[in-house]
Design brief:
single chain, 227 residues, mainly alpha, Arc Repressor Mutant, subunit A, Four Helix Bundle (Hemerythrin (Met), subunit A), 2 domains, 11 helices, 2 strands, 71% helix, elongated, transcription regulation, Tscrpt_reg_HTH_GntR, TF_FadR/GntR_C
Length: 227
């Protein structure tokens, strides 16, 4: 990985650490080695610690008093609660997008959709995820609501490693593609009520994927409850 030379150093460091968490290089519950990350990114401890503070506010890590930091272990309840809120925001974004979206924006999303289908047919999971994310981001942008987009982005950052897990059942993947086909049809008809409902329902199966990937563990909630 290349060293970081940008002006907003702590933000760039935070983004890089977030990528390590998202891609599974830093696992849930893992202690963070400041020395290793400083060596890896070619930065001092000051911007690294500022980055860790940022990631703590974003819910990706937790700071331990006098003991450094570790990657947050997502609980089943926390993920479900986050998804419930994100589903409501996605639904609203679909309704607003159908009200404001232009023909050119729909055409651009259609091209993304067709590219995503090609990745699905080839079973290219990571490129599929990348385009999938661009589709959702494009619908959010078309909603023309900055506060909605900012709030959604903050929530998505917390559970991104769940949404784009490398482990996914064939049944779930097939259903996700069908959902996107229905999304595209509703968007092209500018049927905001239908698109909003499809987007809300689209997150329902994410808990299954997260559990299979080991990113969340329902038993971890029980261990917390039992102390």
């Amino acid at each position: 990985m290349t060293k970081i030379l940008q002006r907003n150093l702590y933000r760039e460091v935070a983004d890089r650490i977030g990528e390590l968490i998202e891609h599974g290089e830093l696992s849930p519950g893992e202690r963070i080695s400041e020395k290793q990350l400083c060596d890896r990114f070619g930065v001092s401890r000051t911007p690294l610690r500022e980055a860790l503070k940022v990631l703590a506010t974003e819910g990706l890590i937790e700071l331990l008093p006098n003991r450094g930091a570790r990657v947050v272990q997502l609980t089943f309840k926390k993920v479900k609660d986050t998804y419930d809120l994100m589903a409501a925001l996605e639904g609203l974004s679909g309704e607003l997008a159908c009200e404001y979206i232009s023909d050119a924006e729909i055409s651009a999303i259609r091209k993304l959709h067709d590219t995503m289908l090609e990745h699905y047919r080839n079973r290219d999971l990571l490129p599929y995820f990348k385009v999938n994310r661009q589709i959702h981001e494009s619908i959010l942008a078309a909603a023309n609501n900055d506060v909605l987009q900012e709030t959604y982005s903050n929530l998505n950052q917390r559970v991104k490693r769940v949404r784009y897990s490398k482990k996914m059942t064939e049944r779930y993947w097939s259903q996700a593609v069908k959902d996107h086909e229905n999304m595209m049809a509703a968007l092209e008809k500018r049927d905001g009520a239908l698109l909003g409902q499809i987007l809300r329902d689209h997150l329902c199966n994410k808990i299954e994927v997260a559990t299979l990937a080991g990113v969340i563990n329902p038993d971890y909630d029980k261990s917390i409850a039992n102390g």
